[in-house]
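To: structure subgroup
Subject: Chain for Friday's discussion

All,

I'm putting the inputs and outputs inline so they're searchable in the archive.
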Amino acid sequence: MMQILEFREKLREIYQKYQNYLNPAIKFIVALIVFMVINKAIGYDDKLNKITIVLLLSVVSAVTPSAILVLLAMVLSLAHVYSVAPLLAILLVFIYIILYCFFIRYTPSFGYVVLGIPILYALHIPYTVPLLLGLIASPITILPASCGVAIYYIIHVIQEEVATATDITSMDDIFPVFINIIDKIVANKQMIMSIIVFALVIAVVYVVRRLKIEYAFEIAIGAGTVTTIIGFLIVDLRLDIPKQIGTMILGTLISAVIVVAIQFFRRVLDYTAVENVQFEDDDYYYYVKAVPKIKVSMTNVKVKRINAQRGSEEEIDDSFEDDDEDKREMERRIRDNQAREARLQDNMNRRR
């Protein structure tokens, strides 16, 4: 376990040191995947399928907010549809405008959620998104999650209808196609029920992880996993698609493992050293439960070894464990608890 914690700390240190370079690189890779998936799904225009276009759009996305990535992805998909069915692209414009305004108004910083869900659907692990959002965000993220699910099913509808709309050139002929597409989207029970289950999972994970209990985050992941399996099991049986049940359960379990790994690198709490602090001011008496975070400090000590035969000294870096490690760890915890109590008392004095 100690080796895993040390590995975690090393990765965190590397990220903190080079985050100004790693963040754009990660955004570039995500954007590259998004645009390549779009070209593979609806790549009707060969000009837009060129790698130079994809790289250019990825570079722009790497240095701009996530909302710009969503906008560029929508524009790219519109351009592909316009190349084969210009009038159908008009309808897609209105749908995208509604979704984009709905998303950008309330959750502009969660653009990756909107695009991540369709991509993760292709990998059969879209359940990662609601589990993670409930763990690290608030229920307002139900909006971008719903937009992501809607875009996934809208793309499938467009793929079905683009063949019939290719030869249509007048508004009179395209109007029935518009009505048919809208009816398919509105009447898509699987899309609506998936949005409901995603929203329920986000709410359940959020509520459980805010409970004042030990291992609240881990219990929240478990509760969200069970909610996901039960929710989509009802959906699959209700819509008579039992073939998806096995894939759904396996994908949910894989998603839970991914979220547990993310939570491990994000925060690890030491519930064996919980402290209950009590203090008061003129107005209140406070009961504070403090759970320390586990932090592993790597200490490299230089040891001089003298070679008597060669008459030289060489310095080597060596990491060791002191015999009094347990004692020093206990003293450190006591100092941390005292400092934590002093900070809490100082905050209360400032409020007064």
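Points worth raising on Friday:
DSSP finds twelve helices and four strands in the chain.
The beta strands are 275-280, 285-290, 301-307, 312-318.

D.
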